[in-house]
Design a protein that fits this description.
Number of helices: 28
Structural class: alpha/beta
Distance between the termini: 31 Å
Strand content: 5-15%
Helix content: 55-70%
């Protein structure tokens, strides 16, 4: 157990102090300047823990504790301490215990767990936790150490007695002595009275004989009268009991009839409401089935079935079309596969067999032609050379001619070379154009594929949007139906609210009902804030339990309709509006003018405060509630209500509503709970809450329907936008297809041009080579001798050339045939590929593309089935097939949605029809039940009339019996004291007539003794009885005096034992503590007695006396009486060796250390869960301060018995070992 938190408000220097940061379970140090409020913090803790100096406070003392700083004057102050009770030391079933004490000028209140408690309960709780009154050293205030330093040995003995709890023993002993003195005084008085009684009895003894006879006859008379009256009384009581029994049965029967009548009325109302609800439900069901136009379930179901049939037919057509397309696709695909194999074989034959053969023939042909051309050129050169020999006369003429020929040939060679270069450049340009066009074609194909994918994705998105739009359309229909249902429920809730409003108005006066209704409108118009107008009383409290409803209503009566306002100004303002507008009359309760008296409630299990037990309310209306309910008690029975109503001047009410007024009136009887004001209010409140719930649901559903409408509009706009984008993509794809076809055609033309250009290059190269050979021959001829005849060698060369030329002609002719055959074969195969096989492939791919399904990979179909060499299928064919497939999917989805909608509509239609059928049956059953209930209601009304007549007759009989009972009871009371039971039993068996005759005879005999002093015998009897009583009382007092004496002896013995035990404990702990504080020192407590003083005096007088006698006396007085104790001495030493010192011989710091050692020893003898020290180390030097700090640290961190310390200090040693430090400052008196 330890202090967790302290909260202080308006206590001395603390103004509005927030909660102090939680304290540590170990060591906590508070620091601050002088005057900052450290001591006030500890005083606040003592104040809350009922320290002796702050336990009982007078008004001026309480005033001194209130804060007097700047600002408004504090009217109350409190200190709240939160304890950690995890070890269960405080007898409260909680891990946290909150103690709080609040004071004001006229109050001093205590709280446990924030519930009001008495000071005795607080003190008992603290005593049980170890906070002993006899040991207040768990809080050591500033100056306490100095006080211990200056104590005398006798004062220390008093301190020891206080720690031992002698104060309690002394209080008990003082009470016992006081009681003994009172007993002695009582016995003396009893003896005086006994002497007087004895003298009076001797005087009355003389008239005893005559008085005895008179008394015998008087006893007989009284016995006869008592027996007669008793028999008459019993007879009256039996009759009264019989009547009460009959009346009780009649009341019970009447109650049953009333309850039954109310139940019948409630059932009639419920059945009528049920019939109305059934009729509304049937009308709604019929509207739902038939509808208005096209929104009925039947029309919707027929529409769904029609749509389903149309969709099934359309799906069948699409499936047949797609099946035919599938078969055609499979056939075309098979043909295409075979055609592709044939094309592959043909292309392989062309590439591997025909083209190599054609190329080889061309190459051989070209070689033969080149050789033939060379031979022809050489022959022509030889012939030309022979001819120029005849043509020119001189060599120079010939060389000039040859030079001209060479120049012409060089020009021609240059032209031919330039033309060859141009053709090669053109061929390279064509090849680059073809490559660029191929790349552009591939990019367009990729773009088309991408756009095709976008088209497919957009198509799927459109389908999803349409499906989502259909779902939202269904949800909108559902919202509309739910709105219709809620509007119907809202209408019923409005009717219920109006009905309960009417019931509540009927339960209050008409003017009050008008006034309250008008006030609500006025408050709204005038914008009066809620804290000014709080409404009627019944709106400002809640019942703790419904069983208290009748009691609270009877207690409040029409005060339930009084209106609570904050001030009389608000009340005057509202009354002015009511008067001017003539809107009714209302009683106002202005909170600022209500005077609430302090009420003391009886402490009894029979009654309880109705205010605290039955209702709950806000603190703002406490005055109004106390004004109405403060003097109201809730009683268990009518007898208890009557008793406490008279004794405490309060109105007492039972749970059944029986009222005992403090003015003496008693109200009760049957209460018609059907006309209860609170019940009508709670029914209205519930109906209004239901109405608000229905309105909230309606608004929520309307918002949802609006949201759905907005979502549908958004989806329609998105669908239209996507459809436009879809059409745009289709147009773009068609345009790109056309562009791709045009580019492919143009590229094929360029490829043909490139082939033609490539074929013409070898011929030009041969021409250029021939020209170069001619130029070389002419250059060789220049400078030679001019001759018209060939040389022998030239002629031989010419002959060889002629032979070679003839052979070459044959070879060329033969090779020409071979080339023609290879060319024909190549042309045949190419014609087969281009004009037959490839065209068939294009036709098949086009057919497949036209019937390709949208579910297949459109990108794959787009790249595979190509009617042109560009490899692209016609977009129109793809989109047509895709459209059919997509249309089929859409139809299937729509069919699924339609079937689901049709099934749902069929289910709803069946449910509606079933509900209509059940509603008709319920309506017939409700009408039958209503007739039965009306018949039963008539029977109840008749039974009530009969029961009322019977009750009146029983009440008349009861009044007569009560009168007889009261009369005979009064006569029996007038008889006075009765004779002994033996005399009464003598006449018990007599009848009433016999008793009357015996009584008459006895009265005649009594007339003979009319002269007897009748009071004398009574006095004698009274004196005798008093003597016996006094003698018994005296014996009791004597026994009590003996017991009190025994108690005093026992208390003295216990006191002696407690002091001796406490001294031994404190002495032992003092040695240990001093040893811990001063490791090399030692200290002890010495108990001085009267014998010690006498021995000292004797030793001073006779210093030479032997030691044996003193030792014997010391041994005999080892355990003397406490009355012989004279003081407690302290001897200490601060070194291992040396003499011991008394307190008077020590320095100030040493005295403070010894005093602190004594404090710690006392604390260890009677440990507390925490200790509070205020500047404990003020007078210590640094060494001793460190020792004290270390001891506090060890004790706070002890595993077996940890203790919390809260200390204030100016020194660093204690702060160094603290687990948590706090600072206090003081500014502006706060």
């Amino acid at each position: 157990m330890h202090i967790k938190q302290i909260t202080i408000s308006n206590f001395r220097s603390f103004r509005q102090q927030p909660e102090i940061q939680p304290f540590h379970p170990g060591t906590n140090v508070v620091v601050g300047r002088n005057g900052s409020g450290k001591s006030n913090l500890f005083d606040a803790v003592q104040f809350a823990l009922l320290a002796p100096k702050l336990a009982h406070l007078r008004q001026e003392e309480r005033q001194a504790l209130l804060h007097e700083g700047a600002g408004s004057t504090a009217v109350n102050a409190f200190c709240e301490i939160v304890f950690d009770n995890s070890d269960g030391r405080l007898s409260v079933d909680s891990d946290e215990v909150v103690l709080r004490r609040t004071i004001g000028l006229k109050k001093d209140e205590f709280f446990i767990q924030r519930k009001r408690a008495t000071k005795k309960e607080i003190a008992s709780l603290l005593e049980g936790a170890g906070f002993s009154k006899g040991n207040p050293y768990y809080i050591v205030q500033q100056g306490k150490v100095n006080a211990l330093c200056t104590m005398s040995s006798a004062d220390r003995l008093d301190l020891l007695k206080e720690v031992a709890g002698c104060t309690v023993y002394d209080e008990k002993r003082t009470d016992s002595l006081k009681q003994m003195e009172e007993n002695k005084h009582s016995r003396d008085k009893i003896n005086e009275v006994l002497d007087y009684i004895e003298s009076r009895l001797s005087e009355l003894q003389e008239e005893k004989e005559e008085l005895t006879e008179y008394q015998r006859l008087d006893r007989k008379r009284r016995a006869l009268e008592y027996t007669l009256y008793d028999k008459e009384l019993r007879k009256a009581r039996e009759q009264l009991d019989q009547i009460e029994h009959e009346r009780s049965e009649e009341v019970q029967q009447l109650t049953v009839i009333h309850e039954k009548s109310h139940q019948v009325h409630d059932q009639i109302r419920a059945v009528e409401t049920q019939m109305k609800q059934i009729s509304n439900r049937m009308r709604k069901t019929r509207n739902a089935i038939k509808g208005s136009g096209t929104d009925g379930l039947e029309t919707e179901y027929l529409t769904s079935i029609t749509k389903k049939t149309q969709l099934e037919l359309e799906i069948k057509e699409l499936e047949e079309s797609l099946a035919a397309d599938k078969n055609m696709t499979e056939q075309y695909t098979k043909e295409l596969s075979e055609l592709q194999k044939r094309i592959a074989a043909t292309e392989e034959e062309l590439e591997k067999s025909i083209m190599p053969k054609y190329d080889l023939a061309q190459e051989v042909m070209l070689r033969y032609v080149r050789e033939k051309t060379d031979a022809t050129k050489k022959m022509e050169g030889l012939y030309a050379r022979q001819g120029r020999g005849r043509q020119f006369r001189t060599q120079e003429d010939r060389d000039v001619f040859l030079q001209k020929q060479i120049e012409e040939l060089d020009t021609t060679l240059a032209e031919k070379t330039q033309e060859l270069a141009n053709r090669e450049d053109k061929l390279a340009s064509l090849r680059r154009s073809i490559q660029s066009e191929d790349e552009a074609t591939e990019r367009k194909k990729a773009d088309i594929n991408q756009k095709t994918q976008m088209l497919s994705s957009l198509t799927n998105t459109l389908d999803n949007k349409r499906r989502e739009m259909n779902e939202f359309a269904e949800e909108r229909k559902s919202c509309w139906r739910s709105l219709e249902d809620l509007e119907e429920k809202l209408k019923e809730a409005n009717e219920s609210t109006n009905r309960f409003t009417s019931d509540l108005r009927k339960s209050m006066p008409h003017a009050t009902a008008m006034g309250i209704e008008a006030l609500k409108r006025i408050v709204s118009q005038e914008n009066i804030p809620p804290h000014s107008y709080l409404g009627p009383v019944m709106e400002n409290f809640q019942l703790v339990d419904p069983k208290f409803q009748t009691a609270v209503e009877v207690a409040a009566q029409n005060s339930l309709f009084h209106v609570i306002v904050d001030t009389d100004d608000t009340a005057a303002k509202l009354m002015g509006h009511l008067e001017r507008q003539k809107l009714g009359r209302v009683t106002f309760l202005p909170l600022n003018r209500l005077k609430i008296e302090s009420v003391s409630y009886p402490e009894s299990a029979e009654v309880v405060s109705l205010l605290s037990r039955c209702i709950r309310y806000e603190p703002a209306v406490e005055k109004a509630m106390k004004h109405i309910f403060a003097k109201k008690l809730l009683a268990k029975s009518v007898d208890a209500a009557s008793t406490f109503s008279l004794s405490h001047n309060m109105d007492a009410i039972t749970l059944d509503g029986d009222l005992c007024s403090r003015k003496g009136a008693l109200s009760g009887g049957y209460i018609d709970r059907g006309k209860s004001k609170l019940k009508a209010y709670y029914n209205l409140k519930e109906a209004q809450q239901n109405l608000r719930d229905q309105e909230n649901q309606l608004r929520t559903l309307q918002r949802k329907a609006t949201s759905v409408d907005q979502r549908i509009s958004t989806l329609v706009a998105e669908t239209e936008r996507m459809e436009g984008k879809h059409a745009s993509l289709l147009r773009n794809l068609e345009q790109m297809g056309k562009e791709l076809d045009s580019a492919a055609t143009h590229n094929e033309t360029r490829k043909k041009q490139c082939a033609e250009q490539g074929d013409s290059l070898p011929k030009m190269q041969e021409e250029i080579r021939g020209i170069e050979a001619s130029v070389a021959s002419l250059k060789q001829e220049m400078g030679t001798a001019l001759s018209d005849q060939l040389s022998e060698g030239e002629r031989e060369m010419l002959n060889n050339l002629q032979k070679i030329l003839k052979e070459l002609d044959k070879e060329v002719e033969a090779q020409t045939f071979v080339v023609e055959e290879a060319s024909v074969e190549k042309q045949r195969v190419k014609s087969l590929l281009d004009d037959n096989l490839l065209k068939q492939k294009v036709d098949l791919e086009g057919a497949i593309a036209r019937v390709a399904a949208a579910g297949e990979n459109s990108e794959l179909a787009f790249g595979m089935f190509s009617p042109l060499r560009s490899g692209r299928a016609p977009v129109g064919a793809q989109t047509t097939a895709a459209h059919r497939k997509r249309q089929l999917d859409l139809c299937l989805r729509e069919l699924e949605d339609t079937e689901r909608s049709a099934d749902e509509t069929a289910r709803k239609l069946a449910e509606a029809q079933e509900e209509e059928r059940i509603g008709k049956q319920e309506l017939v059953a409700a009408k039958s039940k209503l007739d039965e209930l009306k018949t039963e209601d008539s029977a109840c009304a008749q039974a009530l009339e009969e029961a009322k007549e019977l009750g009146e007759r029983l009440l008349n009989k009861r009044s007569m019996c009560v009168s007889k009972r009261e009369m005979y009871m009064r006569k029996i009371q007038e008889l006075g004291s009765l004779p002994p039971s033996t005399e009464l039993n003598e006449h018990a068996n007599l009848g009433i007539q016999a008793l009357m005759r015996s009584l008459e005879t006895c009265n005649k005999e009594l007339k003979k003794y009319s002269h007897v002093n009748k009071k004398a015998y009574d006095q004698y009897v009274n004196f005798s009885e008093q003597r016996e009583d006094l003698l018994g009382r005296k014996v009791e007092l004597d026994k009590g005096a003996d017991k009190v004496k025994e108690l005093i002896d026992s208390l003295d013995h216990q006191k002696d034992e407690a002091i001796n035990r406490t001294f031994r404990g404190v002495s032992s702990h003092f040695k240990e503590v001093f040893q811990e504080l001063v490791p090399n020192g030692a200290g002890e407590l010495i108990l001085r007695t009267a014998m010690d003083e006498s021995l000292e005096k004797a030793s001073e007088e006779t210093p030479d006396a032997g030691t044996s006698d003193s030792e014997d006396e010391t041994k005999s007085s080892s355990n003397p009486s406490v009355n012989l104790y004279r003081g407690v001495e302290i001897k200490v030493r601060f070194a291992a060796v040396g003499e011991n010192y008394l307190m008077s011989q020590l320095s100030g710091g040493q005295k403070a250390l010894v005093a602190m050692a004594l404090i710690f020893a006392i604390q260890r003898c009677d440990p507390a869960p925490f200790y509070i020290f205020d500047e404990l180390d003020q007078a210590l030097d640094s060494t001793f301060r460190a020792a004290v700090a270390n001891m506090i640290q060890r004790q706070s961190s002890n595993q077996e018995n940890p203790t919390q310390f809260i200390c204030s200090t100016f020194r660093p040693e204690l702060a160094a070992v603290a687990n948590r430090c706090y600072g206090i400052s003081h500014q502006n008196k706060v």
